[in-house]
Amino acid sequence: MRDALASCSNLSAPGPDHIKWSHLKMLMCGPTHVFTVLLALANACLRVGHWPKHFKESMSVIIPKPNKPSYSAPKAFRPIFDGVASDVFHRNQIGGIRQRSTEDAGLILTHMVRAGWAKGLKTSVIAFDVAQFFPSLNHEVLMAILRKLGFSDNVVKFFSHYLVGRSTQYAWGDFISDLRQADVGVGQGSALSPVLSALYLTLIMRLFELDPLTRGCFLLSYVNDGTLVVQSKSLLDNCEALKRAYGVIFELFKKFGLALEHDKSEVFHFDRSHSKDNPPVDLGYAPYTGATPLKPKLYWRYLGFYFDRKLTFTEHVRYYSTKALSTVKAMKMLGSSTRGLRPVQKRVLYRACVLPIVTYGFRLWYFAAARCKGALHHLSTMQCSAALWITGAFRTSPTGGVEALAGLPPINLLLR
User: Fold this and answer.
1) Residue 157: closest CA among 167, 165, 147
2) For residue range 261-287, what is the model confidence (pLDDT) as tens digits?
3) C-alpha 126: how far from chain center
4) Residue 302: in which H helix or E strand, if any?
5) Nearest CA-CA partner of 391 in 328, 324, 339, 346
6) Domain boundaries, the chain
7) Per-residue pLDDT tens for 30-58?
8) What are residue 205's phi and psi, to 5 degrees?
C-alpha cells in the first residue's frame, strides 16, 4: 500500500470528495495507528469481497472521437471516466499491460515481416476491431474466466462486487447530469478496465491457438484492436489462411458475447519483391463477400503507424514530419523575436509538444544499416524551422549553428 501510494502524483485532480493523494501521504507519515486502520479496512474489503460504494461513483466526460464524418451518432463519442502476474496474460497481448506500448506491437510486427523475408516468405495481415468492446464485456463470463485462470474466490468476489452498483455523472461542456446507473461492461477510462479486458481476451487467444484451422496463424492483440498475421510463399495462400482464421476468431468472439465490426476490417500484404500482386480477401461476412471482397490499400494505418508493402515508412515519416511542421508554424503566433514567449520557453514548448509527434515510432524505421537519408532530411527541415522560431534568427542562417544556439541536438543524434 505504501509503494502504491508513493507512485501516485500529487498533481492529479481530486474526486468529488476533494481528497488528493498528498492528503493520504500526509496521513501515512503520521501516527502508525492511522496506517494500521487503513490497512485493516483494505484487507477486510478484499477478504469479504466488498467494493465501497463511494468508489463506484464517477464522472464520464463525453469526448468526440477525432476524424469522424458525422457526430450525429452516439458511437462518434467516447465516454471516459475517471504489476503483471506470471502466465496470466497471453504473450501476444500488448495493450493494457504494464511496460508494453503501441511501439512494442509495431516492433513485433516489423520483426515478423523482416524475419519472414529472410526465409523467403511473404506476410499478410487482417486487422479487425471489436464493436463497443468495454461496454460489451459480460460480467458472468468475466468471473468464470478469472476462476479458470486460477484467481482465488475472494479476488473473484471482490471484482464481482466492483462491477455492479456503479453509477456515473455525464459531463458535456458545462452540463453535468445527475448520477445514473452504469453497470454495463467495465468502465472505459478506469484503472481496472485495461486489466479486466485483457483477462477477458486471454482465454479467447488461447482457444484460438488450439484450433486446428488456425495453425500457422499469429494473433496479436492491442486492447480491442486485433491483428491476424500469416506467412507463406504465396499471397494467395495467405488469403485463404486469413479467411479461415477470421472465421474462427469471429465465432470465438461471438461465443464470448462480443462482435466484430466487419466494415472496419483491413487487409494488407508485405512483399519486397517487384511483383504488383495485391489480392483481395473474401472474408465470408458482409460487406466483404463474393463480388465485393476486402481490398488492400496503398498504406495501412495501425496504432498510429503508417506501413507500406516494403517497410520503407516513407508515408509514416512524411505524415508526422508534416504534422510537426504545422504545429511549429501554429506556435509562431505565441511569440516572435520582439514579443511573446522568451527563447527558453519556446524551446520547452518545442521539446514537450513537437518532438513527441515527430519521433513517434522512429524505432520501427531508424536502426543500424537502415536507409533513412530521405526521412532524416524531412525531420531536419522541420527542426530547422523550429530553431529559427526559437532563436529569432534570419531564414538564411546556417542550420547547425541555429540548432546549437537553440539548444537542440541534430535529429540524427537525437534518434540515436
Assistant:
1) 147
2) 888 899 999 998 888 888 999 888 888
3) 18
4) strand 300-302
5) 346
6) 1-48, 102-130+216-307, 314-415
7) 777 777 888 888 888 888 888 777 776 76
8) -70, -35
